[in-house]
Amino acid sequence: MVCVLLLDDEKDVISGNVIMETETLLSGFCKRQNQTRTVFCECEVTEDGRRILLEADCDYGRCEHSRNCVLMAQGNWFQPIEM
């Protein structure tokens, strides 16, 4: 599966109906906090299987490390949370 992370200035139009909302816990190293942490994420899954990140309990999308965040890349998101 290819992981495509689009930041605020790279938003794309999403087609496809949402079929499910789900919650995910991701664990990994956070560069901003310089420690391992667990992030709680809420996402939607579309009919074509894309996972769209709605909310995360970290500063993903606003953090200076968002473009290369290894922790959040684990989620295989199609698009990040909207700012």
Polypeptide structure, described:
With 83 residues, this protein is mainly β. Helices cover 5% and strands 41% of the residues. It has one helix and four strands. Strands 1-2-3-4 form a four-stranded mixed sheet. Strand 3, helix 1 and strand 4 (77-79) form a beta-alpha-beta unit. The protein starts with 17 loop residues before the first strand and ends with a strand. The model is unreliable at 1-15 (pLDDT under 50).
Task: Supply database-style keywords.
41% strand; 83 residues; elongated
Q: How far is the first residue's CA from the last residue's CA? A: 26 Å
Overall pLDDT confidence: 77
In this structure, how is the largest beta sheet organized?
4 strands, mixed
Share of residues in strands: 35-45%
Give the topology, please:
Blueprint: E1 18-30, E2 35-46, E3 51-56, H1 70-73, E4 77-79
Parallel strand pairs: 3-4
Antiparallel strand pairs: 1-2, 2-3
Summarize the model shown.
The termini are far apart. A hairpin with a 4-residue loop joins strand 2 (35-46) and strand 3 (51-56). The protein has one helix at residues 70-73; strands at residues 18-30, 35-46, 51-56, 77-79.
